[in-house]
Specification:
About 45% of the residues lie in helices and about 20% in strands. By secondary structure, the chain is of the alpha+beta class. The protein folds into three domains: about 260 residues, no CATH class; about 180 residues, no CATH class; about 290 residues, no CATH class. The strands form seven sheets. Strands 1, 2, 3, 4, 5, 6, 12, 13, 14 and 15 form a ten-stranded mixed beta sheet that branches. Strands 17-18-27-19-26-22 form a six-stranded mixed barrel. The longest helix is centred in the C-terminal third of the chain and has 43 residues. The radius of gyration is 40 Å and the shape is globular. It is a multi-pass membrane protein.
Length: about 1050
């Protein structure tokens, strides 16, 4: 009978052991454990899902931004990948038939014409003529040119010119540099010619030829590429032009039927921004084709293949300029064909090479993902640690039944796999949904962040769902889960059956704690135990609950450190988020220059038969014309004149003025022995409405300040300055008095007047120039060497105007804020300008005379541009973008030509809106990242605290069995939580304050007077989060740990 019993027992054991190796047993065991511990399972799934969601959101955002950059690049620059330049006629069809080419567009050039002499310089010597591009020809490879006025060319003798040429005459070219010496080989070539200013209907005569480069050393000649800048060569006499126009054709006449210009004020002219001058378009003219360049896209997938295509047609292993080449590549080309590569487009298409810095966004994504993975590992690890700790006896039972260590580890990994199977798909969906929500909510701001012009109307609200990105996110999440499960799985397999069943490893005293205990026992034997002294102190102040709380915290220090660290991270993230929000808001407020929605700046040159009053009338007419645009409201205009002046003693705060010199790295302006200050100054001339507004808001007498024949100025304080590094507010005026405006200062040979200052207590005029011969000289660092000359001011001062300053104000119309100078600023009505300029009406200025020497001389020699009337027109707008388009049309039609030297429209409302949207978008991304990482940290606190409390069930049962009351018990738990709370808050607040301080320091690099602030509201929020997390975690853990009876809990040791 006994034998039968032994046989049966042995058979049962063998059966059990035979069942254990089956994989399904451990999967069922893991599934059953997850089902029985639903709260822990849910927390684990949430942790995995959060981790995967954030990783998915990061990489999906990067993929979406890259797609946005690609779209913006196509909108602004076109979809072309390669441009083959100067393709021989017999190879054009070969390129079109190449199976690697998917789309192509032939850009046909009919040659260049030499512009009139007044246009010649480093830029502007030529007018290039090309075939008018149409949509069916271009096929989306380049953005089409925008006709700003007129129409496209249709007949062979019609031409469309760049808008920069409108209104210009042959004698009054819009050149930017001095004339340069030429080779003389094209002196006999007819230059472009026309009558009057270029307008619709004008006829322009052109002789088209080929630009040809001449090597200065060898004398060899080579054709220039159609869009190359002007070739120059250094010589002892300076730069000389080292190219000429070869093989000119007959002079042909073309009728101007339109002017093209970029459609938006921020857009570049992608057709004519390169090259040696201007660009015009014709349609099938009766002239020979000089060169053909082909824009193309390919079906190639790598940059190596692209380079191979380029080498097949050019002989060079890479593109010129864009692809890493340089000008030497052009000069040393084996054949005539060269190539440009659209690197930015191919970068966004994923075609990179060792020459491009690619993947910055993805690198940042991996860094952020590493942060997320680190935080997630801690959270998910605690989840598995809880699972293993709660089921120590179950693992011991499995071990006693013969389960191997590998099988025990497999059990934990099976649980990890199940959690990952559920959590990762949820995380992927949540990540995609969250990313879509963010991009939908902040689509306009994201579009502005990527490209203001490309997404100005549509915003950016779609996301790129890339299978590779999703697979990468899932892989990183899986790696995170299994790294988190590794240590708990290893611990589960290392526990002996007896220890596991008795639970003797649930509470372990560290080596440090054992050393402290031994040290205290030895000290106690000698009567010198400090530990007992502190324990007695704790007993007297906090009672037994306080002593027990201290012991629990020291014996479970590892778990305590995890909880404190997680709390500190949560608090720090909240404080950092608040700091970023605070300083971004400050940035938005300060950078707003207070100007109008739209501002138009004009430079009006007076012709010889005009007076200052004539110029003012045309400026006012321009202002009224622009104010007629639908939705636009005129808010005033002003003229700005910069000059040098002296101020009576006591008028200027000299210390404040000197600080300007420090900020702007300029020499101190100087004060004479009697206290008179010499300094640069600005005079603003306001329209009548704006001037009357200043008088009314500051309670000034209109009769005293309103006489244009005897003007009395108003001085401005509270002006904002920006030295390129920081913003500040200045009060330069201390009292009223008289300002002596220096209106005419004599010139000296080979030098230009630059400022009035003080030397040895006496006023002087300072000049700078290149010296004898007026030739530029440079030092070893490439910096220009100037001869500096000083003359006593009374010897060179030909005229001045004594201007009374009757008031100092800080309240003035908003548009003035943007134009108030860093130096003393005076304000007058525009009607006073003719009075101040009366003595300068007969002065003829040119570019070689400093405008500071004759600030009110607005006349220039024919063909030159000297001083001009600088006017700024301000407008409010209901729809700033629509108003901008309407105003640009008026500018193109009425405010162009040789009189209007330069006109520029600034859409401040759209710029401010774009900056605000970009700031809000950046803040949103930062807050989303902080919110999710904070949630991971909070979940980590929850897991850690619940784990530490649940594992102390028997300890709590024992304390209650020996008489600890509920109040004392709660007091002990509260003291433990208080320890976690104050330590987490202290560390988190300190860490958050340090990071916020670094943000503050970064802001201080650009803004003066900014105070360091840790936002109090966010501190309160951090305290609330800590209290809420601790309260919820403790309540849940205590409810779960006290669910059984005291006797039943204590009997567990008897197993």
């Amino acid at each position: 009978m006994a034998e039968d019993t032994r046989t049966t027992t042995s058979a049962g054991a063998n059966a059990a052991q035979g069942a254990l190796p089956r994989r399904g047993v451990f999967w069922r065991f893991a599934a059953r454990s997850l089902k029985l511990n639903r709260s822990r399972t849910i927390v684990s799934i949430i942790g995995i899902a959060l981790s995967c969601a954030l990783i998915t959101a990061i990489f999906t955002s990067v993929a979406t931004l890259y797609e946005g950059l690609l779209k913006a690049e196509i909108v602004t620059e076109g979809a072309w990948q390669v441009e083959l330049v100067n393709v021989p006629e017999d190879e054009i069809d070969v390129v079109h038939a190449d199976p690697r080419v998917t789309r192509s567009y032939d850009r046909i050039s009919y040659g260049d014409a030499i512009m009139p002499k007044s246009f010649e310089g480093y830029w502007g010597r030529y007018l290039s003529v090309q075939e008018w591009p149409t949509a069916d020809k271009v096929k989306g490879l380049k953005p089409l040119p925008h006709i700003a006025e007129g129409r496209a060319p249709q007949a062979p003798d019609e031409i469309v010119l760049t808008h920069n040429l409108k209104g210009l005459t042959v004698e009054n070219g819009s050149w930017l540099y001095d004339n340069l010496p030429t080779t003389g080989r094209d002196d006999d070539v007819p230059r472009a010619a026309w009558d009057g200013g270029l307008e619709i209907g004008s006829v322009i005569d052109l002789a088209l030829g080929e630009r040809t480069f001449v090597d200065a050393e060898s004398g060899q000649e080579a054709p220039c590429l159609y869009d190359e800048s002007l070739y120059t060569t250094e010589s002892e006499a300076g730069d000389v032009i080292s190219e000429y126009l070869a093989n000119p054709g007959e002079v042909k006449s073309y009728k101007v039927v339109g002017f093209y210009a970029p459609e938006g004020i921020r857009k570049d002219d992608v057709w004519g921004r390169t090259g040696p001058g201007y660009l015009g378009f014709v349609s099938s003219p009766d002239v020979p084709v000089r060169t053909t360049s082909i824009y193309l896209t390919t079906n190639l997938k790598s940059r190596t293949e692209i380079d191979g295509l380029i080498e097949d047609y050019t002989g060079n292993p890479h593109a010129i300029f864009n692809g890493g080449g340089n000008r030497d590549d052009i000069e040393n080309m084996e054949g005539q064909t060269g190539a440009y590569s659209h690197d930015s487009l191919m970068r966004y298409q994923g075609m990179t090479d060792d020459r491009s810095i690619w993947g910055t966004l993805y690198t940042l994504a991996f860094i952020l993902s590493a942060v997320v993975i680190g935080a997630s590992i801690s959270l998910i690890y605690n989840s598995f640690a809880i699972a293993v700790s709660e089921r120590t006896r179950q693992f011991g039972l499995l071990s006693s039944l013969g389960a191997s260590k590998r099988q025990l580890r497999r059990t934990v990994y099976a649980e990890a796999s199940m959690l990952a199977i559920i959590g990762i798909p949820i995380g992927l969906l949540v990540g995609l949904a969250g990313t879509f929500a963010v991009f939908t909510f902040a689509g306009e701001g994201i579009g502005m962040l990527i490209d203001q012009e490309a997404f100005a109307k549509t915003g950016f609200s779609t996301i790129a769902i890339n299978p590779a990105v999703l697979a990468l996110s899932a892989l990183l999440a899986i790696i995170t889960v299994f790294i988190s499960a590794t240590i708990p799985a290893w611990r589960a397999s290392r526990i002996s059956a007896v220890d596991a069943i008795r639970g003797s490893r649930d509470v372990r005293i560290s080596r440090r704690e054992r050393r402290e205990m031994r040290k205290n026992r030895r000290a106690g034997a000698r009567g010198t135990s400090f530990g007992r002294v502190f324990d007695n102190l704790r007993l007297r102040t906090a009672g037994v609950p306080g002593l027990l709380a201290h012991r629990n915290l020291t014996r479970a220090s590892a778990k305590g450190r995890v909880a404190v660290a997680s709390l500190a991270v949560s608090v720090a993230l909240i404080i950092i988020s608040g700091g970023i929000s605070h300083y971004l808001n400050y940035l938005t407020q300060v950078v707003d220059n207070g100007g109008s929605d739209i501002e138009v700046s004009l430079n009006r040159r007076l012709e010889l038969d005009e007076t200052t009053s004539d110029g003012l009338k045309e400026i006012e007419d321009a202002y009224r014309a622009l104010a007629t645009v639908d939705g636009a409201t005129g808010e005033g205009y002003m003229l700005l004149t910069s000059l040098c002046a002296s101020f009576e003693p006591g008028m200027i705060d000299y210390g404040e003025l000197s600080s300007q010199s420090e900020h702007y790295d300029m020499p101190d302006r100087g004060m004479t022995d009697d206290g008179t200050v010499y300094a640069p100054a600005s005079v603003l001339f306001l329209d009548d409405a704006s001037w009357n507004q200043i008088l009314e808001e500051n309670g000034l007498d209109r009769k005293r300040f309103g006489d244009p024949k005897n003007p009395v100025a108003v001085a401005l304080n509270g002006t904002q300055s920006n030295d390129g590094k920081r913003y500040s507010v200045r009060d330069l005026f201390s009292s009223t008095g008289t300002a002596n405006l220096l209106t005419n200062i004599a010139s000296v040979d080979n030098a230009m007047f630059v400022e009035a200052g003080v030397d040895d207590g006496e006023p002087v005029a300072r000049y700078e120039g290149y010296g004898e011969g007026d030739e530029a000289r440079f030092d070893e660092n490439g910096e220009p060497i100037y001869d500096k000359v000083a003359r006593p001011l009374d010897e060179v001062l030909l005229d001045s105007y004594e201007l009374p300053v009757g008031a100092i104000v800080k309240t003035f119309p908003s548009p003035i804020k943007a134009y108030a100078s860093i130096w003393p600023t005076l304000v007058l009505p525009v009607s006073a300008l003719p009075t101040l300029a009366a003595s300068s009406e007969g002065i003829i200025d040119d570019k070689d005379v400093s405008s500071l020497a004759t600030p009110f001389a607005f006349h220039s020699e024919e063909g030159t541009y000297g001083n001009t009337m600088y006017a700024y027109l301000s407008f409010g707008a209901e729809d700033a973008r629509a108003a901008e388009i309407g105003m640009n049309e008026i500018i193109a039609d009425k405010i162009t030509g040789s009189k209007w030297y330069r006109t520029y429209l600034s859409n401040n409302a759209e710029n401010a809106r774009a900056e605000r949207l970009i700031g809000e978008t950046v803040q949103l991304f930062i807050n989303c990242f902080i919110l999710i990482t904070g949630a991971i940290a909070v979940a980590n606190v929850f897991n850690t605290l619940t784990n530490s409390i649940i594992l102390r069930r028997r300890e709590f049962a024992m304390l209650k069995s020996i008489g600890m009351g509920q109040r004392a018990f709660w007091r002990m738990i509260a003291l433990e939580c208080f320890s976690y709370a104050w330590r987490g808050l202290a560390i988190g607040l300190a860490l958050g304050a340090v990071v916020t301080f670094f943000i503050y320091q970064a802001m201080m690099m650009s803004f003066e007077g900014l105070g360091f602030v840790v936002p109090f509201g966010w501190v309160i929020a951090a305290v609330g989060v800590v209290i809420a997390v601790l309260a919820v975690s403790t309540a849940y853990a205590l409810r779960k740990s006290s669910s059984g009876s005291i006797v039943q809990t204590l009997r567990e040791d008897a197993i």
